[in-house]
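Sanity check

After download, print the first record. It should look like this:
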Amino acid sequence: MLAVNNEAALLSMLARVILRAGHMCITARNGNDALVRYGTNRPDVVVSDFRMPDMDALELLGKLKRADPSVKVIIVSPKIKDNESRACLAEGANAVLPDKASAEELIAALERV
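Expected structure tokens:
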């Protein structure tokens, strides 16, 4: 799995949850880094923050889906607006979770995809 977040503390926490769920995890600090790491490693699932400095998750999602339509993507983000959440789901995100989602909610979403 690939975890993407521009905030180091949140990225570390996200990676720990993924590892605790029994999955391998690589990390990326922004959308461009995520695209490079995805291209190199081809993880089954990408878990990404929505708001990042270089591109938002909607743009990242579109680029990932064009590269690999079968990629599974979960967006985890604070203050995501309803229209942004709907746009992510329409673009092919498998789930959109609030940043305050518990580790158990994230693990459940990972198991669903």
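If your output differs, re-run the checksum step. Summary of this record's structure: Residues 8 and 29 are 8 Å apart (CA to CA).
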